[in-house]
Amino acid sequence: MPRLLIVICLVLLAGHRLARADTPVESPALAAATRLLDQAKAESAAGCTDRSDVLVRVLCTKQLRVGLRTYYPGFSVRDEQGAFSGFEPDIGRRIAAFLGVSFVPVVVNPKDRIPILVGNQADLVIATMGDTTQRSAAVRFIRPHYYASQTAIVGHASSPVSDWADIAGRTVCLPLGSNSNIEFVRHHVRIMTFDSPEQLMDALRFDECAFIVQDDTFFARSLAEPAWAAHYAIKFRFAPLPWGMAVTRENTTQFAALLDDLSVVYHADGTLLDLAKAHRLDLAFLLGEQAKWHDPTCLDVNGTPQERCLLPSVSDSEATDLSIVAPYVSSLEQAATSWFGITIDLSLFRNRTTFGLVLEGILFTLSLVLGTQLSTAFFALGFSRLMTGGGDKVRRAVGLFTAVGQVTPLPLLLFFVYVIAGGLLHYSARVAWVAAVFAIGLYNGSNAARAIDEAHRTLLHRETTPGSGTVEGNTRSFFRAVSLASVQLVAFLINAAKGSPAAGMIGVPDFLNVVTDLTASSADRMTVYLILLVFYVGMVSLLIVLLTMLRRLLARQMLGNG
Amino acid sequence: MLQVITQFIPALLLGFLVNLEIGVAAVMIALSIGVPLAWARRRMRLANRLIRPCIGLMQALPTYVVMFFMLTLLPKDLSIIKLPFAGIVAVVLAQSLYLTAYVSEDAYEAFGHLARNDRERALLFLPNLLRGFVVVVMSSGFGAAVGVSEAVSATLRQAQRLPSLHDRILLFGVAIAFFAVVVGLLNMVIRHFIARLNR
Fold first, then answer.
1. Which chain B residue is nearest to residue A505, measuring alpha carbons?
2. What is the DSSP letter of A305?
3. How far apart are the first and last CA of chain B?
4. pLDDT in tens, chain A (562 residues)
5. In the beta sheet, which residues pair with residue A175?
């Protein structure tokens, strides 16, 4: 009998344990989410208005509209039938199932995902969006975050690039709407933008871009393919960034609180981990979060996540720091609107960082113009002196060299010098500057030198200079030839100044390059380019005036010396 | 290396064809605007006063900067039979601006010579036009900066595939020699033209 009792007790105990294992223990976060949902259901039963919480409106319409991207392998891809697959749509479906409503995908891209949310065209956005302080001011991010990424630079596996210094002066390709433009301009890296990630991948495949930039998560699927991984690799990463689901800031107190709670639940019970595994994503971040949200000290008694356990928004407040000219810029924008009825965007000059980069670009431009003037004058006078005063061999050699300078297109010459400089020295903005000054000077100096040589020959042909054949006579006839060809010399000096912006082709971070890169994603590039054009025309015009004055002064002096 | 050069030559020639197309398009635009402007300047004093500063401004504009400005004016999805076209149009327009000023100044001189019944000197307009064409063809390589597949960008693409500095220098040498021959020939034509006119 006691044996029977013991057996019955053991069976009952085992049955009780089995029953406990089958019925999950409800977490405080799940309880909180359920409470919020029940409360919202009660409200929705009474009807919805525009001022109702988004959660109540979702329950009224029985639809959860989720903003999703169309091509981000592993995370969200839309097929030809319009169906979405990936980690993010799966999260959306789970949430919709929890709410008991249907899941309705809404197409978004990095440019319009916030406007679509704010414009009430979607209730929730799950679209690879990094949580930054700037974005956080416009939308409410759901925390804990559902994923995290870093920005990765991908190139050929054989390319020996591992740091910013290795890509200075080179061009990388970015998706439109990327917020890392400033980072690239700051490191003197040129950028080219593409409308979609598919175009970026094509550009890499067809050698249109040597390096492409995206979140490292974007490349997860491709790197898992042996054929792709044999050719390409992540060269380096920067800017770690947590990704968050987002809702609008208006009327979302209940909805956001419910999603915060659900996010805790999905991390803790491994839902997010399982979904990520199914899509072969990197699990490092999710494993860390799961451990964190298993820890009861990260939740208060109501199931609300503790602030110390949550990741903060990544600060991009640098982007909102004002420059010293910001008040004038705002006044100018307002004046343009009130006087002419046009809207201009001069935000490039309003922000401290971008304004600093623009100033650096202007300094590079001014130094380029000065450098090309000096190098053109140096090559013109040097070559022509050798041609007019040197022996036959020297004359022929210099003549051949200047002929090559004359017939080679400036862009080709620039790249030729750039290739040699890049092969001999570690590339930097200064090396690019020296290469550009040399190439532009060589091109224009060669042309001017031949003009001086022709003038010298004309002089020798027309008259027999007293004392010709002596060093003194040669020197005098040389200066007379320079005077005679001064119009051409000035023309080529002006040409050198006009050609100086082409230095941007080999990565010199001049005014044009900086503006082009910083405004790559801007809606209003026209105003800034107009300012740029006025700047260059003003600079060239000033130079024309100065050089013409100098030429007249020299001509008067030559006349005075007989 | 020999194999690389044999692959490079057809790409260079195809690219140079684009340079020539840019040159021809710029000449057409420059002639259709520059010559009437010069004619108006000769006929109307007021027009001369208005047009002269415009010509001066066009001469002061850096072509490379104008090319980027034009690119911002043009719609990004400009295409012909699905081929992106904005880059090439930007290069043509930027070069046309420079060439229009050049043609207009030259045509102004030519109209002056014609008025004095100096037909030979007026005909110098033609070799000068050819000279302007050569300058435009040479500087159309700036198009490489906005993605135009012309001779300079063909050279760059090929150079990127070569691992050693020596090979890259050799490749650039081939491209420079090609331009030397073409431009040398064109300069010979110009000189021959001028010599015939002087006779």
1. B145
2. B
3. 48
4. 455 555 554 444 444 444 434 434 468 889 999 999 999 999 998 888 878 899 999 999 999 999 999 988 889 999 989 999 999 999 999 999 999 999 999 999 988 899 999 999 999 999 999 998 888 989 999 999 999 988 899 998 888 888 888 888 778 888 766 667 778 888 888 777 777 777 888 888 877 788 999 888 888 878 888 888 899 999 998 888 899 999 999 999 999 999 999 999 999 999 999 999 999 888 888 999 999 998 888 888 777 888 889 998 887 765 567 888 888 988 998 998 889 888 888 888 888 888 888 999 999 999 999 999 999 999 999 999 998 887 788 888 888 888 888 888 999 999 899 888 877 766 678 888 999 999 999 999 998 998 888 888 877 776 654 544 444 456 777 888 888 888 888 889 999 999 999 998 888 888 988 888 887 766 677 888 889 999 999 999 999 999 988 888 877 776 666 5
5. A194
Q: Which residues of B touch A537 (CB under 8 A)?
A: 57, 60-62
CB contact under 8 A, B65 and A210: no
Q: Do domains A24-146+244-309 and A151-240 have the same CATH topology?
A: yes
Distance, CA of A246 to CA of A140 (rounded, Å): 5
Comparing CB atoms, the residue among B65, B152, B169 nearest residue A532 is B65
Structure tokens at A323: 């420059």
Interface pTM (ipTM) of the complex? 0.89
Domain with residues A151-240, CATH architecture: 3-Layer(aba) Sandwich (3.40)
For chain B, which domains are there? 2-198 (1.10.3720.10)
Number of H helices, E strands in chain A: 24, 13
Class of domain A351-560: mainly alpha
Three-class secondary structure assignment of A99-163: HCCEEEEEECCCCCHHHHHHCCCCCEECCCCECEHHHHHHEEECCCCCEEEEEEEEEECCCCCCC
Phi then psi dihedrals of residue A75, to 5 deg: -100, -50
Contact with chain A for residue B28, Cβ under 8 A: no
User: Spelled out in words, what is the top-level CATH class assigned to the domain A24-146+244-309?
Assistant: alpha beta
Please answer whether residues A149 and A163 qualify as being in contact, where contact means their C-beta atoms are separated by less than 8 angstroms. no
B185 in A contact zone (CB under 8 Å)? no
Domain ranges of chain A: 24-146+244-309, 151-240, 321-348, 351-560
Distance from CA of B175 to the nearest CA of A (A): 8
User: What residue in B sits closest to A521 (Cα-Cα)?
Assistant: B72
Is residue A156 classed exposed, middle or buried when 0-12, 13-18 and 19+ CB atoms within 10 A define those classes? middle
Q: How far does B183 lie from chain A, in Å, by closest CA?
A: 6
Which residue is associated with the tokens 């140096």?
Answer: A378
User: Which of B63, B147, B175 comes nearest A412 by C-beta?
Assistant: B175
Q: Is B188 near chain A, with CB under 8 Å? A: no
